[in-house]
């Protein structure tokens, strides 16, 4: 009986180890700079600037070619200014 309990405990402990999130699942926050090389494989979301006017903060969430998630915060000129030529 003790052997059965010990084996079951070992099974639960090993399952908990494999279920724990790996350190590679953390989101990488990229620095906002002109010289940053972005390795974008898939865009997850981006800020809608179509209704904004002036310089606004924006955000780009994307996956790189290795499947890691990145976040880039930056400033952008909104494209919703009516009298802006």
Structure notes:
The chain is an alpha+beta fold and about 80 residues long. It has a single domain, classed as Spermidine Synthase, Chain: A, domain 2 (Roll). The protein has one helix and four strands, in the order αββββ. Strands 1-4-3-2 form a four-stranded mixed beta sheet, with no helix packed on it. The mean pLDDT is about 80.
Radius of gyration: 23 Å
Number of strands: 4
Secondary-structure element string: HEEEE
- What would you give as the CATH superfamily? Protein of unknown function DUF2790
Structural class call reads alpha+beta
| Helix count, DSSP H or I runs of 4 or more residues | 1
| Distance N to C terminus | 82 Å
Look at the structure and give the CATH class: Mainly Beta
Low-confidence stretches: none
Mean pLDDT: 78
Please give the order of strands in the largest beta sheet.
1-4-3-2
Count of structural domains: 1
Give the CATH architecture: Roll
| Biggest sheet overview | 4 strands, mixed
CATH topology assignment: Spermidine Synthase, Chain: A, domain 2
What percent of residues adopt helix (DSSP H or I)?
10-25%
């Amino acid at each position: 009986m003790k052997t059965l309990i010990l084996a079951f405990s070992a099974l639960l402990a090993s399952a908990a180890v494999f279920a724990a999130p790996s350190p590679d699942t953390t989101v990488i926050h990229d620095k906002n700079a002109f010289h940053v090389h972005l390795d974008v494989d898939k865009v997850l979301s981006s800020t809608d600037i179509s209704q904004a006017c002036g310089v606004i903060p924006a955000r780009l969430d994307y996956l790189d070619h290795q499947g890691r998630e990145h976040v880039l915060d930056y400033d952008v000129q909104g494209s919703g200014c009516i009298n802006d030529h």
